[in-house]
Write a structure and sequence with these properties.
The complex is a heterodimer of chains A (842) and B (62). With 842 residues, chain A is of the alpha+beta class. Chain A contains 33 helices and 27 strands. In chain A, a hairpin with a 4-residue loop joins strand 3 (108-114) and strand 4 (119-124). Chain B is mostly helical and 62 residues long. Chain B is 52% helix and 0% strand. The chains are: A alpha+beta (842), B mainly alpha (62). The A-B interface holds A 23, 26-29, 31, 35, 54, 56, 92-93, 95-96, 99-100, 103-107, 112-117, 129, 133, 136-137, 140, 158, 161-162, 165-166, 169-170, 173, 177, 194, 196-197, 200-201, 204, 208 and B 2, 4-5, 8-9, 11-12, 15, 18-19, 22-23, 26-27, 29, 31-36, 39-40, 42-44, 47, 50, 52-53, 56-57, 59-62.
């Protein structure tokens, strides 16, 4: 209805956006577009998997459903609240749009979006508006809602997060203040300082440190006790021993009023250790969230045929041998057998196969596939986790678990470091005592040992590494690369001899949506190519069929209103479309349909069409004929176009020594054709792979090589999860995003190169930090053992050295946008990024 | 007698207040989502003063 507006503005990235656009205009909220991230919008033309589903969401009003997912907003109102997981939340403008929901739907009291999790919390008045209306409104806006499952588990985790953050705050404040007090103490040591002041500082720092130790720091002791009870040794044991010993020593010396105290080290150590724990906790959080997301995205509703007619019920309520109805365009909620009806089914979610598969009575259909044709009645054979999709999700979970944990060698190093320093300290005392048994050797040895323990610090190891990682991940996000864990960056940044890249075809190497790949005109065609394209587009305009949409997109027109209008349009399911435009009778469709009355003429002429048709079939694409007034005029090829930047990116990767293989669920001959176009040898083009086969391929490949999986679909999800590093491309299915380590938010494959460069630089930065830290410690240890550094100097040097290492870590170049010369700006997105990089200056 | 004996405890009290405020914020979920509010502050503006769109709820019904 508002399609004419569409042409004036930016092209839409998806039909969801188009639908949203219409609704937004209708509600007078055009300012959305002024606010939207322009760069992103300009980039994301072309197809996407998002769209309004036109579902009715009746099950959202069901009592079982509401009991499962909704809850009262507060104790004393009738308002209710629900968390809904939304597909398609990407940018900050989504916040603006979605939080205007109370304006769009009467009865919605409040809507709050959490961008990071893509979860909207809606508070609504059930007396005014049913939940299904709200769900439909969200759907119309282009954000398909799903009930967020596992909210209770998340509530618990959120509480944990808050406790941890509070600990961090307290420990941080105490650490900073104790450091200040000690600054005064150290500074005052050079001059005479009033004894009463010194005592005041000592007592205050003791009080603060005891709070830090028995408040935030107590979690280490608790962890150590738990480990000891289980007769195991964890990192917490040496940590809490050290902390407790230091605290007791300090308290005793403070009460005695003389001797050294180390409250500065203790309080700062507690803070840094907590920071490390916090980062670790967040990473584990991300992994747990991903599996939850998967379950939220499996279909949650079915139309059950019961005695009282057809009712929409939550999938949880379905039993085996119930009968459900699947409407055209809807996704199949269960695994089952077709009882009534015939249709074609899009199984790309499961197999990656682009062509729909025909199903008849007695055939199996799987949950998650999309019914493209007519109405089906399906007898339920499996629901929920026992469906094929559910099993795939379990594979994803397993794949994530078998991943090597974030290689904690710096942690290990830190432990060895502490042990080594304790041994060295004891050795220092012993050596000085032995060397000067009567000349005060014991006291000199003690002083030097203390200086040693103070001056040496595993900071560069323990803190710089996660810091560089966190910084790198933050910077990469700004470049459109979302990395979910540090292990992925580590694996990509480490050069190994055998590196294999497995690439999915559909939607990764190719655009994933059908488009017209070639036009062939008949010899005796009286029309120009442009004319034919315009006529075709005019005829196909308004059709919902995916081939028709591809044809309608291709016409070189600026305004849809410029196109002639077609009359007497008729669509024949599985055949094509016909209509009359400007007096011409036009048919587009299969050979049998379009050339029904012209079959003889095409056979008789030495027409290029016949030759072209054979070529198209050989490529594994679909030929579509166009006839005007019963004369064959043109032949279109409908296929899945290779992404524009794919050849260059793959060539660049090969030059870096990557072994590239295609792993696709699509027919082998199609895969071979795409592989040939990209210069990949035939024996590396594997087609017809089920998700399980892809998983096996990844596992086999990981035996002898770093294996990176690049994919987009749910059928790739298990393989993505099991690979050394899984990378999902823009437009990928939400389930595959959950399974991956890294998600490219910008279209195209160029991000892979940026990612590799950035990861290599990040690892180099980390190596530098470790080297710098080790060098510092060796020198400092030598100086303090020999007595050149006294404890006071040590206490001043240590924080400065730590700060230097941290600054170094922050300044290290990691991820950076590829530098582009202005002249080359146009092709910037697909230009290979220079591999020779400036060495970081230490 | 030194001013330090007054100033230092006072500083500790102020720090205590700051820490209490932080912990209060954490407990009340102020730090649960750090991404959305950052954009929210930039986006919410005159629109809340704008009159409601004419019966927009009707549009969402099929």
């Amino acid at each position: 209805m508002l399609a004419e507006h569409a042409a004036q503005s930016t092209p839409f990235c998806c039909t969801g956006c188009q639908a949203a656009y219409e609704v937004i205009r209708g509600c007078g909220l055009e300012r959305y577009y002024a606010l939207r991230d322009q760069a992103q919008a300009a980039n994301s033309t072309g197809g996407s998997t998002l769209r309004a589903t036109d579902r009715r969401f009746d099950e959202y009003d069901d009592e079982t459903f509401q009991a499962l997912y909704a809850r009262p907003a507060s104790a004393d109102t009738h308002l209710r609240r629900i968390e809904l997981l939304l597909q398609g939340v990407h940018c900050s403008a989504c916040v603006w749009l979605l939080e205007k929901l109370p304006q769009v739907v009467k009865g919605v009291v409040e809507a709050r979006l959490e961008v990071g999790r893509a979860v909207i919390t809606v508070t609504w008045d059930p007396h005014v508006v049913p939940l299904s209306t709200i769900a439909r409104a969200l759907d119309t806006l282009g954000y398909t809602p799903h009930p967020a499952r596992g909210t209770r588990a998340r509530d618990i985790r959120r509480k944990d997060d808050r406790v941890m953050l509070a600990r961090l705050g307290i420990a941080g404040a105490i650490a900073a203040n104790v450091m200040l007090i000690f600054l005064a103490l150290y500074a005052g040591a050079f001059e005479t300082m009033e004894a009463s002041h010194v005592q005041l500082f000592r007592w205050v720092s003791m009080a603060l440190s005891v709070i830090a130790m028995f408040g935030p720091g107590w979690m280490f002791v608790r962890g150590a006790l738990a480990a000891l009870r289980a007769r195991a040794l964890s990192l917490d044991v040496p940590i809490s021993l050290g902390l407790l010993a230091g605290t007791v020593w300090g308290v005793v010396n403070t009460i005695r009023g003389e001797g050294d105290i180390y409250f500065d080290s203790i309080s700062v150590l507690i803070f840094f250790l907590l920071v490390g724990r916090f980062i670790q906790q967040r990473q584990q959080r991300a992994a747990a969230d991903s599996v939850e997301l998967l379950f939220s995205l499996t279909p949650s509703v079915a139309s059950r045929v019961g005695e009282d007619g057809i009712r929409e019920v939550p999938v949880e309520a379905l039993r085996v041998s119930d009968v459900v109805v699947v409407l055209a365009g809807a996704s199949v909620p269960v695994d089952g057998v077709v009882l009534v009806g015939s249709s074609s089914v899009d199984r790309s979610l499961l197999t990656g196969e682009t062509k729909p598969v025909a199903v008849r009575v007695g055939d199996h259909v799987e949950a998650g596939t999309i019914n493209l044709g007519g109405l089906l009645r399906v007898r339920v054979e499996a629901t929920g986790e026992s469906t094929r999709v559910g099993k795939l999700m379990r594979l994803v979970e397993e794949g994530s678990r078998t991943k090597p944990p974030f290689i904690q060698w710096t942690d290990q190093l830190a432990i060895h470091f502490i042990v080594a320093m304790l041994v060295l300290g004891l050795a220092t005392i012993a050596l000085w005592w032995l060397a000067l048994p009567h000349d005060g050797g014991l006291s000199r040895g003690l002083t030097n040992a203390i200086a040693l323990l103070v001056v040496t610090c595993p900071c560069g190891l323990g803190l710089a590494t996660p810091l560089v990682m966190t910084m790198a991940m933050g910077r990469s996000a700004r470049l459109g690369i979302l990395a979910k864990n540090a292990a992925a960056i580590e694996a990509l940044g480490t050069r190994t001899t055998h590196r294999t890249l497995l690439v999915d075809k559909t939607g990764t190497l190719t655009e994933g949506t059908p488009s017209v790949t070639s036009w062939t005109l008949a010899d005796d065609c009286a029309f120009t190519l442009t004319d034919v394209q315009r006529l075709a587009a005019a005829l196909e305009a308004g059709s919902q069929h995916h081939v028709a949409k591809a044809i309608a997109r291709v016409a070189p027109h600026s305004e849809p209103s410029d196109l002639p209008t077609a009359s007497d349009v008729r669509e024949v399911l599985g055949a094509g479309r016909e209509g009359t435009i400007q007096g011409h009778h036009i048919r587009i469709g299969t050979r049998a349909f379009a050339l029904a009355s012209a079959a003889n003429s095409i056979a008789a002429t030495s027409n290029p069409l016949t030759r072209a048709e054979n070529e198209i079939l050989a490529r594994g694409e679909s030929p579509v004929f166009l006839s005007i007034n019963h004369r064959p005029v043109a032949l279109l090829s409908i296929g899945d176009r290779i992404r524009a930047d794919a050849p260059q990116v793959l060539a660049n990767l090969r030059a870096r020594g990557w072994h590239i293989r295609i792993a696709s669920g699509d027919a082998p001959q199609v895969v071979q054709h795409v592989g040939a176009a990209l210069g990949i040898p035939a024996n590396d083009c594997l087609g017809g792979l089920a998700p399980e086969a892809k998983l096996a391929l990844v596992r086999a490949s990981r035996e002898h090589a770093t294996t990176v999986m690049l994919g987009d679909g749910v059928n790739d999800a298990p393989a993505l999860a099991a690979a050394s590093v899984g990378i999902a491309v823009q437009g990928g299915a939400e389930a595959s995003l959950a399974a991956t380590d890294i998600y490219l938010t910008r279209p195209g494959l160029a991000g892979v190169l940026t990612l590799l460069d950035g990861a290599e630089r990040t690892m180099r930065a980390i190596r530098w930090c470790v080297i710098a830290s080790i060098a510092y410690n060796i020198v400092a240890a030598a100086l303090s053992i020999t007595g050149i550094i006294n404890p006071l100097l040590a206490a001043i040097i240590m924080p400065m050295a730590s700060l230097t290492v941290l600054l170094l870590a922050l300044r290290m170049p990691t991820f950076a946008a590829p530098r582009v010369r202005p002249a080359a700006a146009r092709s910037a997105s697909i230009e290979p990024i220079p591999t020779a990089l400036p060495e970081p200056t230490p | 007698m030194s001013v330090l004996f007054i100033v230092l405890p006072l500083a500790i009290v102020i720090v205590g207040a700051a820490v209490w405020a932080f912990v209060w914020g954490v407990r009340h979920g102020q730090f649960d989502d750090l991404d959305t509010p950052a954009t929210r502050v930039a986006l919410e503006d005159d629109d809340y003063a704008a009159p409601h769109a004419p019966a927009p709820a009707e549009r969402t019904r099929p």
